[in-house]
C-alpha cells in the first residue's frame, strides 16, 4: 500500500462550501474500546483497556493518520476515546488507515495499516431511513449521522463501524487485526507537558513515568474496583488468551424475525433494535419488507409500538433481551461488559437452532422457512408476559430478558411519554458477578 508523506493536517479541505466532489462529506470520527467491568461509585466507573492513540515525535513511524484515495491526509488521531473532528466543513472520505495505539491494561503497543471501505462509507452517508425521532430532535449537528467509529478489543482486534446519514442504522464495515510492536511509553505516549518530568538528573526514567509503573497502577485499580477481574488478570499480567475471539462471536448473524402478540391490540411490525455486535437498525414501514428476510446479529434491546384497541392509544414498549448492569445513580443506566455471561447465555439460544453459523455465513442467504421467530407475548395490560425464540415448534425462553419501559406515545406517534415506571418486569436469569457490576450500590 502506498503511503503519503506524513504532514500537518490542512485547515480546510477545499475552498468550496458546496459538495462538488461525490466523496466529500462532513463526517466525524468516533473511537471506543472494550469495557471489562464496572465498579462501585467513583468518577471512573468502567475498567477498560485504556486505549491511547499515539502521535510520537520521538519515533516517526508511530502515528495515527487517515488518508484519502490519493494519499492526502484527511484525519489525525491522538489520545483517548471519544469523538474527534466534528465540523461543518467537508472532507474526503478515508481510503487508508495507519494507526498506532497503546493498550494500558494489556501493556502492549499495536499498529495497523490497512485499506478502508470507502464505498461503504459513501453508501451509508447517502442513505436515510424513516426515524422514530422527529426531524432535528436527536442533535443539531450536521455530521451527527455521518460517523465512522473505531472500536478496539483485546489482542489487537479492531472493528470499523459506519452510521448512516440520519443515524437510523449502524453497520460493521471492516474487521482487522493489528500487530504487536515495541514502543517507549514515556517518549511515545506521554504528552510533551509531562515528558520533561520523566527523566532524573542521570537521564533515567523516574518511576512515576515508566510504562511498568502505569501498568501496575492500572492493576491496582482493577484489584480495588473489580477484584474478580484482578484474579483473572494477575496470573498472566494481561488479558486472558483468546479474549479477542469474543468479538467475532457476537458479530455472527442469524436468520430470525420479530413478532409481538398483543391480546387487546395490534402490532404493526415497526421496531428499533440494538444488537450485541454494537450495530443498530430502525425498522419502520419503509424497511419492513427487506428486514423480514435479512440476517441479523443477536438483539440486545428492542423498542416497538402496539395499538391498544379498547383505548385507541398507541403504546411504546422497550425490552432488554438479557440482564444488564444497573447504575442506580443515573436514569437509563444499564451496561454490558466485555465477555458478558448474560450476553453469552442469550447468544447460545440462537446457537441452539443455528449451531454451525460463523462470520463467513453472514452474507449467505437463508430460505424464509428456515428463519426462527423471536416472539414477545403481552398480557392484557401491555406488559411482557413471555419472550422466547421459536423454530419448528420448539420454544427456547429468553429468561434473561425483561420489560424495561411501557408508556403511551407522545403526539408525534413514536416517542414515549416520560414519567412512567421503569423495570416493568425483572430478569429470571442474571449471571453477572456482582463484584464486577455493583455500580452506585452499597
From the alpha-carbon coordinates, what is the Rg to the nearest angstrom? 24 Å
Q: Please, how many helices?
A: 9
Beta-strand content bin = 25-35%
Overall residue-averaged pLDDT value = 83
Overall geometric form = globular
Q: What is the oligomeric state here? A: single chain
Strand line-up across the major sheet: 8-2-12-13-14-18-17-19-20-26
The biggest sheet, with number of strands, parallel, antiparallel or mixed sense and barrel status, is: 10 strands, mixed
Pfam family, one: DUF2931
Region (Disordered): 1-20
Protein name: DUF2931 family protein
Note down, in words, how this protein is organized.
The protein has 442 residues and is of the alpha+beta class. The chain has 2 domains: 1-12 and 23-249, no CATH class; 250-437, no CATH class. The chain is 15% helix and 32% strand. The protein has 9 helices and 26 strands. The chain has helices spanning 118-125, 185-189, 192-195, 211-225, 227-234, 245-249, 288-291, 341-353, 434-437; strands at residues 24-25, 28-33, 35-38, 46-48, 51-53, 65-67, 73-76, 82-84, 91-92, 96-103, 108-115, 147-152, 157-163, 169-177, 179-181, 256-261, 265-275, 280-283, 299-308, 313-320, 325-326, 334-335, 372-378, 384-391, 394-397, 402-408. The strands form 6 sheets. The chain has a 10-stranded mixed β-sheet. Strands 5, 6, 7, 10, 11 and 15 form a 6-stranded antiparallel β-sheet that branches. A hairpin with a 4-residue loop joins strand 12 (147-152) and strand 13. The longest helix has 15 residues, at 211-225. The protein is globular. The chain starts with 23 loop residues before the first strand and ends in a 5-residue tail after the last helix. The model is unreliable at 1-17 (pLDDT under 50).
